[in-house]
Structures are given as structure tokens and as C-alpha cells.
């Protein structure tokens, strides 16, 4: 938690209020009053916010999980698969034609990776109304 002591140039904050924040490489992200994460460089964060949290140790099992997970996109037989193609293109950062070529079976391998990477893919997939499977079972 942090408290706002000076208004930063971006985001919606109120001086004196308490906000959630998280560390990222060379910066901090602070959740503003519209519940959006605003990224600030270390210098901007230090000049506008005061960290009021206590130092704690946390254990995130996902960061130690070296299992390789596989995400399969399940195609709907009754449609033209536009939403699946769009999801594939967005997640893999490829164009629509390449995504359509990739989706050539009812159950298509979308990507593989460790737990942290899979979490990022799942966040992107959540924006689409598509069916998918993860093997082995994803516990996070």
C-alpha cells in the first residue's frame, strides 16, 4: 500500500488517499481511483507516493513451477471459427491469415510454456469467448 503525497502527471489520484501498488522492473504500478494500473518510473513514484507497507516475504508457487503446460484451442464445429482465429492472432501476435492456417484441427495447440507464461496467455484469452484445454491440469 502507498499513500499519495503529490499528484502524478497521469492517472486519477487524490492526495492523502491510500492506493495499492506493485513493483515491476525499474518501475511501479499504482491502481488509481478508476481501478486502472498506472505505470510510473521509480523517480515519479518516489516523488508522488509514499510506501506504507511493511516488508514481508511471500511464496508464489507459480514462480517455482517448471512444468511445461500446453494450451489447446478447441474449435466449434458449428461456426466459421472467426472468434477462435481472432483469439489465436491476438495471443500469438500473428496476422489473421497465419492464425487461420494454424487452426486446422478441432483441437489445435496454441502455445506451450511454464506456469507464468501460461498465466499471461490465459489473461489474453479471457477477452475472447473461446473454448480451450490445458494439459497437464493447470492448478493456478
Main β sheet profile: 3 strands, antiparallel
Radius of gyration: 20 Å
CATH topology of the largest domain: Ribosomal Protein L30, Chain: A
Enumerate the spans where pLDDT stays under 50 for 5 or more consecutive residues. none
Number of strands: 9
* Distinct helical segment count: 5
Q: Roughly what is the average pLDDT, rounded to an integer?
A: 90
- CATH architecture classification name of the largest domain: 2-Layer Sandwich
Strand order of the largest sheet: 2-1-6
The portion of residues forming beta strands comes to 25-35%
Tell me what the structure shows.
By secondary structure, the chain is α+β, with helices and mostly antiparallel strands. It has five helices and nine strands. It folds into two domains: 2-51; 62-135, 2-Layer Sandwich (Ribosomal Protein L30, Chain: A). The chain has helices at residues 42-48, 61-64, 82-92, 96-102, 115-125, and strands spanning 2-4, 18-19, 21-24, 27-31, 37-41, 49-51, 69-74, 107-113, 131-135. A three-stranded antiparallel sheet has the order 2-1-6. The chain has a three-stranded antiparallel sheet with strand order 3-4-5. Helix 3 crosses helix 4 (96-102). It starts with a strand and ends in a 5-residue tail after the last strand.
Amino acid at each position: 500500500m502507498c499513500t499519495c503525497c503529490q499528484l502524478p502527471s497521469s492517472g486519477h489520484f487524490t492526495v492523502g488517499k491510500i492506493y495499492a501498488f506493485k513493483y515491476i522492473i525499474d518501475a511501479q504500478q499504482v491502481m488509481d481511483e478508476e481501478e486502472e494500473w498506472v505505470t510510473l518510473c521509480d523517480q515519479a513514484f518516489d516523488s508522488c507516493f509514499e510506501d506504507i507497507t511493511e516488508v514481508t516475504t511471500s511464496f508464489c508457487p507459480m514462480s517455482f513451477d517448471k512444468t511445461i503446460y500446453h494450451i489447446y484451442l478447441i474449435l466449434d464445429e458449428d461456426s466459421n471459427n472467426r472468434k477462435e482465429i481472432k483469439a489465436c492472432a491476438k495471443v500469438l501476435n500473428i496476422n489473421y491469415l497465419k492464425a487461420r492456417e494454424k487452426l486446422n484441427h478441432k483441437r489445435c495447440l496454441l502455445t506451450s510454456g511454464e506456469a507464468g507464461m501460461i498465466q499471461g496467455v490465459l489473461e489474453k484469452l479471457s477477452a475472447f469467448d473461446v473454448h480451450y484445454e490445458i494439459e497437464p491440469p493447470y492448478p493456478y
